[in-house]
Amino acid sequence: MKQVNFIKYLAFLGALMVAFMTSCVDEDFDMPPESTLPVGGEYTIQELKDLAVDDDYVFTDSASVYGIVTMDDKLGNVYKTAYIQDETAAIALHQSGFGGIYQGDSVRVYLKGLKVGTYNNLYQIDSPDGEGFMLDSHIVKLDVNVEVKPKPVSIPELKNNTPEYQGELVKLENVQFVTADTSKTFADTSSENMSRNTYLIDNEGNTMMVRTSGFANFAGESVPNLNGTFIGVLSQYREDRQLLIRNPEELEMDSPRFLGYVQTFDDNSFGDWTTYSVTGAQEWEISSQGSNTPYAMMSAYDGGSNNENEDWLISPKFNLDKFSNEQLSFWNACNYSGSDLQVKYSTTYPGNGENPKEYSWTDFSGYNLSTGSFNWVSSGKIDISGISSTNVHIAFVYTSTNTSGKTWEVDDIKLLGEKN
Question: Fewer CB near the terminus (10 Å): N or C of the chain?
Fold first, then answer.
């Protein structure tokens, strides 16, 4: 009798251990029986978005939408959020907790008691109070490991058709991170896990923001320094279109870089450009007056009158021997009377903050300049393919007198070229 009881005791312990081990590795939330979540009316994701064009839409009757999870919060790059996609569109899910559904899960979302709307212009399914919904009350998991192929797109397509692609898994080919970002990590892990914006560029000079959370488990990894393919999800925050990395292993960037340099001054600094004042107390500065974004600006007007000035805005060093068919372009605006802005290049300037007047510079020609009224114009594409040097600096040179001086504004400076 004692032996039988001992065997039963061992069996009980074994069953208990199996249950404990299972609970430790199960990442799924507690799924209620599907019968407790009726289907009701069936919607596509695009139909949900259409309901919320003007205002949030709250479901009071039974309804469902189906989709495949294309991004989850497992790697920490999004917070209590997942993205689902069907053949019509994609949308974010705002959860009340972490985990539960994962990339590749096929799910049905039970919509009764939930709202569809926008949060800072991002379409999402949420609880009516905006605090996120409980998955075990609204999600039926139908399958796992379902593959969704990313949609091939270009940067202009994403920017010009954001509502169409918002939330979708996309693929950009022949892109690279801008030079200024290749010395960085994806996010700032040095203090308070700060998020960071880095930028992709294509061979036409179009750029696109990549947003990475400081809490992503790859936040401290280095930004790729080569050219290739980027895969991610297109999100949005207010007016900013943001690409989100699902996993850095999906970034296949192992080809030589093209010449793709852009300076927008959008971080309210000169970045890798330098300024040098030859004459006068006024200097180049960053301004955003009359504009939604910053730009470089130089004016001789101060203290109620014009002042004599010569001021240089000088680029970092470029190695043009690696590329072919190089082109320079920029946007500019001006007002008032005075001298035109000059654009020059040098292959002898050392770039160490010395007086540029002590070195040889050559004038560019054939570019378009603003005629006044602060009207922005494009310079057009300036052919710089004839410059052969590993040490090329470009400069915008401003001059004025005590009697006349225009205000000049410069933005969106681009150097583009093909890989040799």
Answer: N
